[in-house]
């Protein structure tokens, strides 16, 4: 890993002080430097940008991993004198050398502004504090920059100094009481598309479909083959009293779109607001018809659209968050909602900066906005809202029945958060795990049971160290204190079992400690039917006794004369897997262990899991004819990022 570091340094410092460096490097650099140094007054910024971009391009002669590390080193040198030039220099290099697409270059390195989610200043923040040649750099070059370096070995970390040792009494969960159950609603991944446009291209080849800027690279010749099948009604919406206005029918087959977006959405698009309203109304309708009430709702995050950064703005981010909170409030009434923020729920996308390293107030507009609304709506009290403002929108609440719900911001463990590569081998850069442990110890001491909610599940798309630390904590406090952990993010209906001594191949009924419940999404992106669920919860122990999931087959709305989607009962988790299980026993990790074993042994069970995973959407995998389902056993039986990775590697060899 050789780099012309001094040259760069001299180049940059020369701009400030002029000359004083030996010009004994290769000709390209010398020429640039000579030009720079001879210019009086000192060359303009664009010359420095140009020279840095050329230096960055020169790294393409190194091995992929060295090249990536060397770029970080160049950036680190630049940021120490001219942080303002990091964004333009890296963008120029990225675009000119075609390192990524134009869109990706601007997203990753572009100058940050209110229009177009560009992360250039976050990248400069990262460079200012990271260690490019150590774990930080290697982790970054694997997870955040195109797998350029091999996946680094995870250091042997622990956070056990923050909690007392686990005792024998912590190895068992309390038995459900005799007081019956109550219900908790779980909705996830709403992803509102503010730009949803009826007639927009639903079969797009670039960016997200169903917007005014969605295009199909291939020109449609003649009429769309879908003519006559798609019912599109303009201006159909729900009133404040939930009543539905069908709007007026319109022929969107005018020859411009392969598939004109219809009223309720499509599998390659995010949710039009009317689909979100329909989902929430279906919940209220069901509750009314069946005389079911929900004590509270958990919302496991993601409100913003998946569109390219250039179509997302600070304003549209705020607007999406506010709109969704209001829609939830309008339908949930006096039932409290306990939300978390998802990876999409910040601007720029996925960023979250650790206060510990000096980034105070960096994104406080977001935790302030959300905490203010949560408090105004009566979901959090004053103290909890204040905790949320200062804890990256994470908080702890005690429900009226005595359950504690702890909500975390999982961008602290997400690979797309640029700030996660600062001092990445430290175990708790955000102080979030310390907060979690303090809350758990307090509950353990008074025999209170706890639910944990966050957006991103630990095994799927999570950085190895925080995944391991989170798992260590959940293992320590399970099954006695932690009654359940709840996530969204994948859009799929799935679960992850935590076994004692995770990763050491002890997947047995006795070792099964806890289960992560991963809820299906409302958004149909990508290839799933919109779905929501509720849990039947034991009143005494807060253990899950059953889980009921509902969905709507979105394709039925293409030819339904503009009517509202029809929502269906999908399944009961206690019934569908045909496992003999005592009615009085909760659906604990031992139950899910049996489901996992059935999946391991039978293609029919893997297919059943996949049908639920996609909610019977048209592109549901066929486990007999495709390899899609091969990793499913790893997916449901591994809890940490590394264990899942190792398990999949073992399956594929
Ligand atoms: C980047 O470097 C490569 C050789 O490694 C060269 O072919 C290419 O022209 C350079 N691109 C720019 C924009 O300088
Ligand atoms: C590249 O993206 C930027 C930012 O979105 C835009 O301003 C520019 O026009 C794009 N250039 C090309 C060639 O597409
Ligand atoms: C951002 O976009 C809005 C409208 O979409 C426009 O009014 C505003 O001028 C733009 N701001 C900048 C800084 O480009
Ligand atoms: C990891 O650390 C623990 C103590 O923190 C120690 O017992 C164990 O042997 C270490 N494992 C490795 C592979 O270094
Ligand atoms: C076709 O319909 C779309 C959506 O309504 C509209 O934006 C577009 O202008 C129409 N094109 C023509 C040629 O009428
Ligand atoms: C979607 O567009 C592609 C061209 O990009 C075309 O080949 C395909 O048939 C289209 N699919 C449908 C269902 O219209
Ligand atoms: C969704 O419901 C909210 C709250 O009642 C309402 O303000 C909004 O106009 C509705 N939007 C649509 C498209 O139905
Ligand atoms: C609805 O359920 C409540 C208890 O949850 C019960 O008190 C009430 O009588 C029920 N109403 C009807 C109409 O069944
Ligand atoms: C990295 O984290 C460790 C452990 O928390 C801490 O002691 C150290 O000061 C941090 N390093 C930097 C450069 O902030
Ligand atoms: C593996 O599991 C066994 C059985 O539960 C346990 O005794 C052992 O401590 C675990 N090993 C590790 C490294 O956690
Ligand atoms: C359950 O019922 C028993 C007796 O009916 C009562 O003493 C106990 O407090 C109840 N527990 C809860 C959590 O409601
Ligand atoms: C929707 O898709 C499912 C799954 O492919 C299919 O069984 C069903 O017939 C479709 N419904 C309509 C109305 O096309």
UniProtKB/TrEMBL annotation:
Superkingdom to which the source organism belongs: Eukaryota
Q: Name one GO molecular function term.
A: metal ion binding
Keyword Cell inner membrane assigned to the entry: answer is: no
Q: Which UniProt keywords apply?
A: Glycoprotein, Hydrolase, Signal
Tell me which Pfam families the record gives. Answer: Metallophos
Annotated protein name in UniProt? Similar to Saccharomyces cerevisiae YDR452W PPN1 Vacuolar endopolyphosphatase with a role in phosphate metabolism
- Classification via PANTHER family: ACL091CP, SPHINGOMYELIN PHOSPHODIESTERASE
Calcineurin-like phosphoesterase domain location: 183-492
Q: Where are the transmembrane segments?
A: none
The residues forming the signal peptide are 1-20
Protein species of origin: Maudiozyma barnettii
Write out the GO cellular component annotations. extracellular region
